[in-house]
């Protein structure tokens, strides 16, 4: 917990705003799950596209499904996916980046080759190709998005670690016989931490965007899953009858990405 | 120097070609479902796809070949720069891609031009008057736009300028003004980011010692800016535009799907649906190569503007 | 000052970009049509329907909206007493788009090409084709009264010999219809021009184009904004929006297509008729018709819809939702409600996979509705959306449990063709019965293949329809109503339930 807390005092005003937006969304997602416990797939065809009311705070969709329950589900899904993807990508990218910088030689070359090849293909195209293997699989989407996200970590971490490794401080510690883990914690991690955390916030935003985009071209998760991009497509034909329904997933995507972007602060 | 850039990029292009081709080959072979059936559905439509149709396709395309043999065939053809024929239409992949690529490039060029037309004036203005009302409102606007997926921007534009005020066609192509909405959607997404980069570079340049000195030596604000400002601020901006190209290509997939634009992104999505392996390889390959080519252009542009710096 | 100049310049530039783009107004005597179908080739066996609908090509036999066979490029036909030799007498004065006059040899060449492609003609028992004066003779190896209906199918169109290259491939499509191809830009655009030398009614409109719009939302917006004059296959969800604008009319027509649940009648859970009946009773068809498809009254109580009168049981009562009776049926079969709300028998949960495909957007929507309705009965349905090819593939390898499909019984003008492939053999058909142990239907169908008497045909067809309604090898859900958005400037619009022709040559455009 310590490095995270150490990072907090440096938050700017807009980062606080981002954090607040995200906390509100997370709180909504969790509270909806605990308190409302709505079934996001339960249909009621006699009550479709109902406007928000006391019973249905967010109205109902074209199947009469509770929009409150669906938004809760969709937000949990997006947040969960971004959390998983970012954690995986950060671990993988940071690990390999440090490895490459530390080992150098053939390891570094191989990893660079891999990263460059992957980087030459636009990320979304890669996700699209992978998602097509198993349409509707959360696992495949998670793997595909992580596969795209780790490269950024790898490149940044490798570049920064290279600088640290050449530094006299690290050399001194090494002379004193400290182990690699100590060297990493004492010297490398403090240097790369801000970048890793910034990238994490950006990465989370990108993961959410990728999920929604894939849903929008029908290659992502399949109905009846509540997923923000898919909900936009499904509710689009009713934009005239039920603009409030269409506005909800769009607003959610917007707030999620805005929150993460603000939290990330200024791009390096 | 230029040679080095070109050789590096060429190597990357070869890697991309092999990597993308092999990857899509493996992926498509591991996709669930019998390929012959998929291709038959793509060819004959849902009313006419049956076991007989699939058998027909299997015979004609020799789909019974073991995977490694098919892969070798593909690799040999690649070396001869032959991308094969589409399983669905039977037309050479290269012809179809040429057709699609033209439309995509048209869209991309329009989007980049529009983005530049928006980003540079607005970015420079807000950089020169940093923290003024224009700067602040543009910051807000850019943050709002950046938090939208590009398809939402497209949707909003459709609802506003095609439905509410029917100024432009909703979808389709071939009418002269149909590129406006898709290109604008992409351009807005691009400009939202690049206008901020232009603004930051401008700010950095006008606070630099050489710029201040030029002002002190008596040049007018406009003269100083034209002679010392523009070129210096363009390097980071052009470099950044290069990074943004990923976003552009990703955006093209979304936007083409939304506007039924017959480009390469739309072609890729369709090829994936109907399991048209040569088309998938071809389109993914073209996108990769397009990306590398654009990056090369950016490298060269940076080099041209500022021969001091070694790109990469 | 200078900034001001820049701003002005910028404004001017933007202005220039916009200037050619005034209101998207269609040209005066030019008709724009939008639809969901993409086309990739000129080959009639693959994309022939696009070219018959745009009236570029024609077939020997035509079909009336009621499903009767009419004279097309053949004025009449007769069959030998042994029913093995058919003679089609060709129309005089038919000219192809390249100026060549149609003769029996050109018809023979076109049909020989069709015989070598996938399609209903290739599956017919055709022995050989022969030219006899101005008639084409088709010799069969066994009686096949479907032949004229097959010759109305889009894969059997007649085109000029100049359409083929040396290797017999189609490089141009020179048909005989009232329109000829002007622009062929697959997959999105097909432009046609009026053909002045057409043998029938020469078109009033000078040119037309077909634009593919694969997103339903976009198509509706095109209709609403006036960018397109006619939009076929309108998304039911969007009708509300179109009804509110005065210049577009939404026309709704029943077509010989039905949404059905295909199921594995040999599956351990589904082999009892009662189980299938329970599933059928648990469906809220009117809810689906009203709320999902926005087409009240399209509930299906049998497989084949009313336009195909021979095969439709007019007196069959509708199937009302009756969850209690459905539950009772399953109770009797030993299915007990489990703790998680899913019925259990012999430690097996009543849980099935249902596949459907995204080609027709309404299917996925109906599938989610069915999933929710069967859940109330204690039947768990796992929906997966794939490609339409998964249905025949799943049928062949036996992995299919349930599938939600849209079946076109008017694929060949005589539904017998589709019925034969769906129910004609003990294994069933890719889009029909699966492991359904019923030999009566197959036998009756076989008998119809050579049946020339209309009354006997009708009676037998009715018997088959009754058997299918009782035994439920497929569960009917709804019939299809095709929604078409038509701009008010289009006059004499007519809809072909068999979707063979857009009747462009009859239309007129008012200003």
UniProtKB/TrEMBL annotation, chain A:
CDD domains: TM_PBP2 (cd06261). GO terms for cellular component: plasma membrane. The chain crosses the membrane at residues 16-35, 77-103, 123-151, 196-221, 244-264. It comes from the Bacteria. It holds the Pfam family BPD_transp_1. Residues 75-264 form the ABC transmembrane type-1 domain. It is a multi-pass membrane protein. It is found in: Cell membrane. Keywords: Cell membrane, Membrane, Transmembrane, Transmembrane helix, Transport. GO terms for molecular function: dipeptide transmembrane transporter activity. Belongs to the binding-protein-dependent transport system permease family. PANTHER family: D,D-DIPEPTIDE TRANSPORT SYSTEM PERMEASE PROTEIN DDPC-RELATED, OLIGOPEPTIDE TRANSPORT SYSTEM PERMEASE PROTEIN APPC. This is Dipeptide transport system permease protein DppC. It comes from Nitrincola lacisaponensis.
Automatic annotation (TrEMBL), chain B:
It is a multi-pass membrane protein. Signal peptide: none annotated. The keyword DNA-binding does not apply. GO terms for cellular component: plasma membrane. Its main location: membrane. GO terms for molecular function: dipeptide transmembrane transporter activity. Pfam families: BPD_transp_1, BPD_transp_1_N. Residues 101-298 form the ABC transmembrane type-1 domain. InterPro entries: BPD_transp_1_N, MetI-like, MetI-like_sf. It is found in: Cell membrane. It comes from the Bacteria. Belongs to the binding-protein-dependent transport system permease family. OppBC subfamily. This is ABC transporter, permease protein.
From TrEMBL, chain C:
This is Oligopeptide ABC transporter, periplasmic oligopeptide-binding protein OppA. It comes from the Bacteria. The keyword Signal applies. GO terms for cellular component: ATP-binding cassette (ABC) transporter complex; outer membrane-bounded periplasmic space. SUPFAM superfamilies: Periplasmic binding protein-like II. Residues 1-24 form the signal peptide. InterPro entries: Peptide/Ni-bd (IPR030678), SBP_5 (IPR039424), SBP_5_dom (IPR000914). Keywords: Signal. Gene3D superfamilies: Dipeptide-binding Protein, Domain 3, Periplasmic binding protein-like II. GO terms for biological process: peptide transport. Residues 71-425 form the Solute-binding protein family domain. One of its GO terms (molecular function) is peptide transmembrane transporter activity.
């Amino acid at each position: 917990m310590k490095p995270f807390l150490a990072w907090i005092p440096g938050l700017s005003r807009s980062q606080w705003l981002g954090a607040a937006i995200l906390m509100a969304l997370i709180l909504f997602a969790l509270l909806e799950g605990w308190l409302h416990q709505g079934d996001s797939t339960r249909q009621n065809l006699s009550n479709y596209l109902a406007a928000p009311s006391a019973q249905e705070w967010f109205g109902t969709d074209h199947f009469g499904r509770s929009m409150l329950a669906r938004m809760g589900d969709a937000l949990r899904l997006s947040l969960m996916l971004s959390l998983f993807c970012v954690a995986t990508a950060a671990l993988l990218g940071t690990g390999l980046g440090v490895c490459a910088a530390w080992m150098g030689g053939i390891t570094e070359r191989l990893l660079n080759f891999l990263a460059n090849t992957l980087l030459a293909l636009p990320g979304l195209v890669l996700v699209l190709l992978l998602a097509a293997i198993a349409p509707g699989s959360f696992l495949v989407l998670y793997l595909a998005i992580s596969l795209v996200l780790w490269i950024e970590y790898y490149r940044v971490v490798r570049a920064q670690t290279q600088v640290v490794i050449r530094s006299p401080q690290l050399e001194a510690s090494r002379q004193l016989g400290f182990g690699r883990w100590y060297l990493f914690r004492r010297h490398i991690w403090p240097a790369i931490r801000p970048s890793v955390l910034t990238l994490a916030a950006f990465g989370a935003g990108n993961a959410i965007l990728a999920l929604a985009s894939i849903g929008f071209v029908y290659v992502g998760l399949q109905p009846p899953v509540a997923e923000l991009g898919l909900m936009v497509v499904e509710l689009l034909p009713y934009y005239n009858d039920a603009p409030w329904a269409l506005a909800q997933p769009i607003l959610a995507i917007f707030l999620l990405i805005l929150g993460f972007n603000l939290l990330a602060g200024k791009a390096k | 120097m230029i040679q080095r850039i070109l050789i590096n990029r060429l190597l990357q292009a070869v890697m991309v070609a092999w990597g993308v081709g092999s990857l899509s080959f493996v992926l498509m072979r591991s996709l669930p479902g019998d390929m012959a059936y998929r291709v038959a559905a793509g060819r004959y439509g849902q009313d006419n796809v049956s076991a007989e149709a699939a058998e027909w396709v299997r015979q004609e395309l020799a789909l019974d070949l073991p995977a490694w043999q098919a892969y070798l065939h593909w690799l040999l053809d690649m070396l001869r720069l032959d991308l094969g024929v589409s399983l669905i239409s039977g037309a050479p992949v290269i012809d179809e891609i040429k057709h699609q690529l033209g439309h995509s490039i048209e869209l991309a060029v329009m989007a980049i031009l529009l983005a530049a037309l928006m980003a540079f004036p607005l970015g420079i203005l807000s950089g020169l008057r940093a923290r003024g009302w224009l700067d602040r409102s543009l910051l807000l606007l850019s943050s709002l736009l950046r938090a939208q997926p590009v398809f939402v921007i497209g949707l909003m534009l459709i609802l506003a300028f095609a439905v509410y005020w029917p100024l432009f066609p909703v979808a389709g192509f071939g009418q002269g003004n149909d590129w406006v909405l898709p290109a604008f959607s992409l351009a807005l997404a691009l400009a939202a980011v690049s206008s901020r980069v232009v603004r930051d570079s401008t700010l950095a340049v006008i606070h630099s010692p050489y710029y201040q000195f030029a002002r002190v030596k008596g040049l007018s604000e406009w003269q100083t800016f034209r002679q010392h400002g523009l070129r210096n601020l363009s390097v980071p901006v052009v470099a950044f535009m290069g990074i943004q190209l990923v976003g552009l290509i990703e955006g093209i997939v979304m936007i083409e799907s939304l506007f039924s634009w017959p480009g390469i992104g739309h072609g890729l999505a369709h090829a994936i649906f109907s399991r048209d392996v040569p088309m998938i390889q071809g389109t993914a390959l073209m996108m990769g190569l397009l990306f590398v080519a654009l990056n090369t252009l950016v490298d060269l542009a940076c080099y041209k503007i500022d021969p001091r710096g070694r790109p990469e | 000052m200078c900034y001001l100049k820049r701003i002005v310049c910028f404004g001017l530039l933007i202005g220039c970009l916009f200037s050619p783009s005034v209101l998207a107004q269609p040209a005066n005597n030019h008709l724009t049509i939008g639809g969901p179908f993409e086309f990739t080739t000129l080959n009639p066996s693959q994309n022939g329907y696009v070219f018959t609908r745009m009236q570029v090509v024609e077939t020997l036999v035509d079909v009336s909206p009621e499903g009767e066979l009419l004279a097309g490029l053949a004025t009449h036909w007769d069959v030998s007493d042994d029913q093995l030799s058919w003679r089609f007498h060709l129309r005089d004065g038919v000219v192809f788009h390249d100026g060549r006059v149609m003769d029996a040899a050109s018809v023979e060449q076109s049909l020989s090409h069709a015989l070598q492609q996938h399609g209903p003609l290739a599956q017919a028992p055709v022995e050989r084709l022969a030219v006899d004066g101005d008639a084409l003779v088709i010799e069969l190896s066994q009686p096949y009264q479907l032949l004229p209906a097959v010759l109305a199918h889009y894969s059997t169109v007649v085109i000029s010999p100049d359409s083929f290259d040396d290797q017999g491939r189609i490089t141009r499509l020179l048909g005989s219809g009232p329109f000829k191809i002007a622009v062929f830009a697959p997959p999105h655009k097909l432009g046609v021009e009026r053909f002045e030398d057409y043998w029938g009614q020469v078109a009033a409109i000078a040119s037309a184009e077909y634009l593919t719009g694969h997103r339903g939302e976009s198509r509706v917006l095109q209709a609403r904004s006036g960018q397109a004059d006619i939009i076929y296959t309108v998304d039911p969800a969007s009708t509300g929006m179109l009804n509110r604008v005065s210049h577009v009319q939404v026309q709704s027509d029943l077509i010989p297509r039905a949404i059905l649940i295909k199921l594995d009648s040999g599956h351990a859970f589904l082999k009892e008729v009662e189980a299938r009946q329970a599933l059928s009773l648990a469906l809220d068809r009117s809810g689906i018709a009203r709320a999902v498809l926005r087409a009240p009254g399209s509930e299906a109580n049998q497989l084949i819809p009313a336009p195909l009168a021979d095969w439709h049981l007019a007196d069959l009562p509708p199937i009302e939702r009756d969850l209690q009776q459905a539950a009772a049926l399953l109770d009797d079969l030993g299915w007990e409600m489990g703790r998680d709300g899913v019925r259990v028998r012999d430690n097996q949960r009543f849980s099935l996979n249902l596949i459907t495909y995204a080609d027709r957007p309404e299917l996925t929507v109906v599938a989610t509705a069915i999933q929710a309705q069967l859940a109330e009965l204690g039947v768990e349905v796992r929906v997966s959306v794939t490609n339409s090819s998964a249905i025949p593939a799943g049928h062949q390898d036996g992995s299919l449990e349930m599938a939600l499909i849209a079946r076109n019984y008017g694929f060949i003008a005589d539904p017998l063709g589709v019925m034969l492939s769906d129910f004609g053999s003990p294994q069933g058909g890719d889009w029909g019965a699966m492991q359904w142990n019923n030999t009566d239907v197959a036998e009756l169908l076989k008998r119809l293949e050579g049946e020339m008497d209309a009354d006997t045909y009708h009676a037998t067809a009715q018997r088959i329809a009754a058997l299918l309604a009782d035994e439920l090898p497929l569960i009917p859900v709804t019939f299809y109503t095709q929604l078409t958005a038509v701009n008010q400037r289009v006059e004499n619009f007519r809809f072909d339930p068999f979707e063979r022709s857009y009747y462009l040559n009859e239309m007129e455009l008012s200003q």
